[in-house]
Design a protein that fits this description.
The complex is a heterodimer of chains A (318) and B (336). Chain A is mostly helical. Helices cover 78% and strands 2% of the residues of chain A. In chain A, helix 6 runs antiparallel to helix 7 and helix 16 packs antiparallel against helix 17. The longest helix of chain A is centred in the middle third of the chain and has 31 residues. In chain B, strand 7, helix 9 and strand 8 form a beta-alpha-beta unit. The longest helix of chain B is centred in the middle third of the chain and has 18 residues. Chains A and B meet through helix 13 and helix 14 of A and helix 4 and helix 6 of B.
Chain lengths: 318, 336
C-alpha cells in the first residue's frame, strides 16, 4: 500500500544518515502519480480527446482558409471534382484581408490613425515576406479567443454567482497560470499529437484564467443597488444577468478579451515547439541555428502584430 | 380600502431567527439580541394599515428599521414572522409567501420603488431607464414608447430623453427614478428616502412636485424619511419608529400635539413648527372684532396678514367663531 505513495530505496547505512537521511529515504511519488493519471486518461478518454481535437481542427481549418484563400467557386461552375476555381486571383487575397481589417479598424475607431497603423503594419509584414506565417498565427490567436471567451465568460459568471465555486477554482486557476508551459506541452502532445491543436490547447490552458478572473471581477462588483433596482421592478435572474450584470461588467469583459489576445500572441513561439505553424516557427528555427538576423526579423514581426491587435481592440468605452 | 397591511411583521437578519425572535418578544433591545444570538433585529411586531391613495411616512433615525420595513412590502427583505399584504386586482395578496413568478408579477404591476441612491443604470439613456419596468414585464419597445414619453413630460425631462443618466444632475436623476416608478402604473409606490441625497433647495422643489403629481395620480405611497419636516409636509399620516418598533402612528397634528414618548417629543422639539400649526393651534379664547379665517388656515398665512396690519383675526369653525388670533397669541404658542 505504502509503495503506491512512496518509493523507498533499500536502506544501506541508516546510522550515518542523520535526520535528513530519513527524509530523503522515501520519496513521495508525485511524478509517477501524474504519469499514471495521464496514462489512465489516455487509455480511457481518447474518444473525448479525439472529439475535441476534431472540433478544434475544423475551426482552425475554417479560419485559416478564410484568411489564406479566396472563395472557391468551383462547385458553382461545375468543374471537375477537387479542382479549385477561385473568384479572383489568390495573390489579391492578402490585400483584400488587409483592406477588411483596415475597414474594421475604421468602424471601431472612427478616426484615421488606427486604420493607417493597421494598413501600414500589415503591408510591412507582406514586404518582409511573413504574411503566410502571420495568417497562421492570427488563426491561432482567433481560435484561442473563441475558445477562451466561449468558456471563460460563462465560467466567470457562474463563479461570480457562486462564491464557493470560485474559492474552489482559484487554486486551479493559479496552477494554470504558474505551471511552466513546457510541462503541459508534454501531455498535450501525448493526447493531441503534433500540430496546431496541441499548440492551441497549451495556449488555452495558459490564457483561460484571464477572461475567467476578469469576468468574475466585473460581474461580482456590480453594485447591490443596481441589482436591487432590477429586482424591485420584477427582473428574472436571466434578465438581471443580461440587462444589469453583463452591461455593468462589459468593460471588464472587453479587458479580458484584450488580455486573451495579447497572452495568446505571447504563446506563438511555444506553440511552434509542438508543431503549430505561424510566426513562432522562424523564431525557433533562428534559435536552433543561432541566426541573429532571422530571429530579430521574425521577432519584430510578432511585435508589429501585437501592436496592431492591441490598438485595434483598445476601444474607448464611454 | 386598505392598500397595504402589515401584520405583526418581524424581520430578523441571520440564519436561525427563532431564539432571537423569542428574545425580542421579551422586549430585549437590539444590542442585547445581537450579543446573545448574533442576529440583528430589523423590525419587531409592526402592525400598520395604509389606505388607498394615502401617503404614509415611516419616520425615524437611521437604524430604526424604517427602510427595512419598507423593503418587506416588495419582498426585498424576507419577513421572519408575520406577513405583509398588498391589494392587487381587488384582493389582498400575501407578499411574504409570494415566490418566483408571483412575486415578480407583483413587482412589475403592483408595487414600484424609488431609491435613495437612484439605482439608475448608468449605461442607459433617460428613456431606457424610465422604460425599465415595462421592459422587464416584456413590453416591446414600441409599446413602451407612449408610456415613457408621458412620464418624461410629467417630470419635465422630455428634452433629456436621449441623454445618458450620468450627464444629469442629482435632482434630475431622481426625477428619472420617479418617472421609472410611475411608468409601470403600479398603484403602490415605495420611496426609500428619495430626496435625502439631494441638496435642500432641490429637495424642497421635488417634494412640491411629488405632492402636485400625487394630487392627480392618487397612488398609495409609503415614504421613508429621517426628516420630520419632510414627513409633516408629505405625509397624510406618520409612523414613528425606534429600534425596530413603531412607537406612534398618527396625523402630523396628532403627533405634534401629543407625542407618545420622549423620543417622539425630542423629534417634535427639533422641527420647524410653522409647517404644521394652523389657526386652531395658535388662537386664544375670547371675543374680538376682525376678519374671519378658517380653523385650518396655516400659521404662515396668519402671520402674513398680521404683519400686513391686522390686529386680530377671528377663527371660525363651520361658521361659528371659536377664538381669535393676535400677534401675541402666535408668539405665545411658538415660544411654548
Amino acid at each position: 500500500m505504502l509503495s503506491w505513495v512512496t518509493e523507498c530505496e533499500t536502506p544501506e547505512d541508516t546510522e550515518g544518515l542523520g535526520p535528513l537521511g530519513y527524509l530523503t529515504e522515501c520519496k513521495i511519488r508525485i511524478g509517477d502519480a501524474a504519469e499514471a493519471g495521464f496514462d489512465w486518461l489516455q487509455a480511457n478518454g481518447s474518444a473525448v480527446f479525439d472529439w475535441i481535437s476534431d472540433f478544434l481542427d475544423l475551426m482552425i481549418e475554417a479560419i485559416l482558409t478564410l484568411l489564406q484563400e479566396p472563395p472557391n467557386t468551383g462547385w458553382i461552375r461545375d468543374v471537375g471534382r477537387g479542382e479549385e476555381v477561385y473568384l479572383y486571383p489568390p495573390d489579391l487575397h492578402s490585400i483584400l484581408i488587409i483592406a477588411i481589417l483596415t475597414g474594421i479598424a475604421w468602424w471601431l475607431h472612427r478616426g484615421w490613425k488606427v486604420p493607417a497603423l493597421v494598413a501600414v503594419g500589415f503591408l510591412f509584414i507582406v514586404n518582409q515576406g511573413y504574411w503566410e506565417e502571420t495568417t497562421e498565427s492570427l488563426t491561432l490567436v482567433l481560435s484561442a479567443c473563441v475558445v477562451c471567451m466561449g468558456l471563460g465568460v460563462p465560467i466567470g459568471i457562474a463563479a461570480a454567482h457562486r462564491p464557493r465555486l470560485y474559492a474552489g477554482m482559484r487554486p486551479v486557476l493559479d496552477l494554470m497560470q504558474t505551471l511552466p508551459t513546457f510541462v503541459y506541452l508534454i501531455p498535450a502532445i501525448v493526447f493531441f499529437g503534433i500540430g496546431m491543436v496541441p499548440g492551441l490547447i497549451a495556449t488555452v490552458i495558459f490564457v483561460l484564467p484571464a477572461p475567467i478572473r476578469l469576468t468574475h471581477l466585473g460581474i461580482s462588483s456590480t453594485p447591490q443597488s443596481l441589482i436591487e433596482a432590477g429586482q424591485a421592478f420584477g427582473a428574472t435572474p436571466r434578465q438581471l444577468l443580461w440587462k444589469v450584470e453583463l452591461p455593468y461588467a462589459l468593460p471588464q469583459i472587453m479587458t479580458g478579451l484584450n488580455q486573451t489576445i495579447m497572452l495568446s500572441l505571447s504563446m506563438v513561439v511555444i506553440a511552434a515547439l509542438v508543431g503549430a505553424d505561424g510566426l513562432g516557427v522562424p523564431v525557433v528555427r533562428a534559435l536552433n541555428r543561432v541566426d541573429t538576423g532571422l530571429g530579430f526579423e521574425s521577432g519584430f514581426i510578432i511585435v508589429v502584430v501585437a501592436i496592431i491587435l492591441d490598438r485595434l481592440l483598445r476601444v474607448r468605452t464611454k | 380600502m386598505t392598500a397595504v397591511r402589515f401584520n405583526e411583521v418581524c424581520i430578523m437578519f441571520g440564519p436561525h431567527p427563532a431564539p432571537a425572535l423569542a428574545m425580542a418578544d421579551e422586549g430585549q433591545s437590539r444590542a442585547e439580541i445581537q450579543s446573545e444570538t448574533g442576529h440583528v433585529l430589523g423590525v419587531h411586531d409592526c402592525s400598520l394599515e395604509v389606505a388607498e391613495g394615502e401617503i404614509l411616512v415611516l419616520m425615524g433615525l437611521s437604524g430604526s428599521g424604517k427602510s427595512t420595513l419598507l423593503r418587506a412590502v416588495n419582498g426585498l427583505n424576507p419577513v421572519a414572522r408575520g406577513s405583509v399584504e398588498v391589494s392587487a386586482d381587488g384582493r389582498m395578496v400575501n407578499v411574504t409567501e409570494a415566490k418566483g413568478a408571483a412575486l415578480r408579477r407583483l413587482r412589475q404591476n403592483t408595487v414600484a420603488m424609488v431609491f435613495q441612491q437612484f439605482g439608475l443604470l448608468p449605461w442607459r439613456t433617460v428613456r431606457e431607464n424610465v422604460g425599465l419596468g415595462l421592459e422587464l414585464a416584456g413590453l416591446s419597445a414600441s409599446a413602451r414608447a407612449a408610456a415613457v414619453d408621458r412620464q418624461l413630460s410629467l417630470v419635465g425631462l422630455s428634452d433629456w430623453a436621449e441623454r445618458k443618466v450620468g450627464e444629469l444632475s442629482g435632482g434630475m436623476q431622481q426625477r428619472v427614478g420617479l418617472a421609472r416608478a410611475f411608468a409601470t402604473d403600479a398603484p403602490i409606490l415605495l420611496m426609500d428616502e428619495p430626496f435625502s441625497a439631494l441638496d435642500p433647495l432641490i429637495r424642497t422643489k421635488l417634494q412640491d412636485e411629488l405632492l402636485d403629481l400625487q394630487r392627480d395620480l392618487k397612488r398609495t405611497i409609503i415614504f421613508v424619511s429621517h426628516d420630520l419636516d419632510e414627513a409633516f409636509k408629505i405625509g397624510n399620516r406618520i409612523a414613528i419608529m425606534e429600534g425596530g418598533r413603531i412607537v406612534q402612528v398618527g396625523t402630523p397634528r396628532e403627533i405634534f400635539s401629543a407625542p407618545a414618548s420622549d423620543y417622539v417629543a425630542e423629534f417634535v422639539a427639533n422641527m420647524n413648527p410653522l409647517g404644521v400649526l394652523t389657526a386652531r393651534d395658535v388662537m386664544e379664547a375670547g371675543p374680538g372684532e376682525g376678519p374671519r379665517v378658517g380653523a385650518e388656515t396655516p400659521v404662515r398665512d396668519l402671520m402674513d396678514r398680521l404683519a400686513a396690519g391686522e390686529t386680530a383675526l377671528i377663527v371660525e369653525d363651520a361658521g361659528t367663531p371659536i377664538g381669535r388670533v393676535t400677534s401675541e397669541s402666535v408668539v405665545a404658542r411658538l415660544c411654548d
